[in-house]
Design goal:
There is one protein chain. An 8-stranded parallel β-barrel has the order 1-2-3-4-5-6-7-8, surrounded by 7 helices. The chain contains 12 helices and 8 strands. It has a single domain, classed as TIM Barrel. The radius of gyration is 19 Å and the shape is globular. The relative contact order is 0.17. The structure holds flavin-adenine dinucleotide. The site of flavin-adenine dinucleotide has 20 residues, from strand 4 and strand 7.
Length: 301
């Protein structure tokens, strides 16, 4: 039995990472990662658009250690936004503030975000700040709050496993928020540990945000949640243009298309870039059944 820890071990193994990265995203990684370049990400977004799906792209990056690396990451985001406009794809940008220098110096991160948001505004596009682990929650919300005074084309994500999620959603009334269960290993001091409790709180914050009249991006592969949110919207007369569903690229493809065919906006989160290895291993760790991807990739070589 292949376990979660096995993939977490692989995700951190430098030797295997180097080998795998040299080969490029093969062995199944291609089914959950668009490729290594902006062009490949744009081609993937276009292919999804043709199926009636919207997209958001995320340039996978590892830690940045200095201003030059953070500025490079910002420059890459800007080039990606330009590419979206020139390819004419229905696609926005997802990013992580730590890649833009949040841990180095908040002012570097602010400066990079302003440059990215100026470009996004020019192209009439939107930027989503992914939420990282709980040690970055306050700094992320504080950056967002400052940016929201100048820009309306930026939002973030709130994690339902956190006890404080309800208060954060309340404070972000009027903001486009992605609502998620949460992906990090958080301690019981800050987060529910029990799946049922996470489920309950997650559902509650989605409904709270929707009832507030704010735009909600419901990012989950959980068909129970999706069914409940569809029924909830219907019951409360919340129009389909007031919320969207989101899933990761390569997961539950049929369900994605089914949701889109029912007239809901279905956005697919497309990761791409040279640092695909850690992302791929973490997805396998989250759901070891996804090893099917890897096996399929091997067979199709
Ligand atoms: C678009 C997107 C953006 C995200 N952004 C962030 C972020 O910024 N920060 C963050 O912390 N986390 C983020 N996440 C991850 C998120 O927090 C969860 O960790 C992740 O989505 C797993 O939870 P889930 O609700 O999708 O379903 P799970 O809790 O993994 O699964 C619930 C149930 O759904 C069904 N199911 C799930 N996956 C499958 C599958 N592949 N095939 C068949 N059935 C399945 C099963 O019945 C399963 O029991 C994001 C997720 C998505 C989709």
């Amino acid at each position: 039995m292949i376990t979660r820890n096995f993939f977490l071990f692989l995700s951190q193994n430098a030797f295997i990472k180097n080998k795998a990265t040299k080969w490029g995203p093969k062995f199944g990684a291609k089914s959950v990662i668009a490729g290594e370049t902006i062009e490949e990400a744009m081609e993937t977004a276009r292919m999804l658009n043709e199926k009636g799906l919207s997209a958001t792209v995320d340039h996978l990056g590892e830690f940045v250690y200095n201003k030059a690396e953070a500025d490079d990451a910002a420059d890459y985001c800007i080039r990606t936004l330009d590419a979206m406009a020139s390819f004419g794809v229905d696609c926005n940008l997802s990013l992580k503030l730590t890649q833009l220098g949040l841990d180095i110096d908040r002012s570097i991160c602010m400066q990079n975000m302003r440059a990215i948001l100026d470009k996004a505004k020019k192209h009439n596009n939107f930027v989503r700040i992914d939420m990282e682990d709980s040690s970055h929650l306050e700094p992320t919300l504080s950056v967002l709050q400052e940016l929201r005074k100048e820009y309306d084309n930026v939002g973030t994500a709130i994690q339902g496993y956190l006890y404080r999620a309800e208060q954060d959603v309340e404070a972000l009334k009027g903001t486009n928020i992605r609502l998620i269960k949460g992906a990090y290993n958080e301690p019981p001091e800050v987060a529910y540990q029990d799946n049922d409790e996470v489920y309950k709180n997650y559902l509650a914050i989605i409904k709270q945000h929707m009832l507030n009249g704010s735009y909600a991006a419901v990012a989950t592969h959980d068909h129970h949640i999706i069914a409940e949110i569809k029924a909830f919207a219907e019951e409360h007369g919340i129009e389909k243009d007031r919320f969207e569903f989101q899933m990761l690229y390569g997961f539950r493809n049929e369900l994605q298309e089914e949701i889109a065919s029912e007239g809901y906006k279905m956005r697919v989160y497309i990761p791409f870039g040279k640092d695909w290895y850690g992302y791929f291993m973490r997805r396998l760790a989250e759901r070891p059944q996804n090893i099917t991807f890897a096996v399929r990739g091997l067979l199709s070589k």
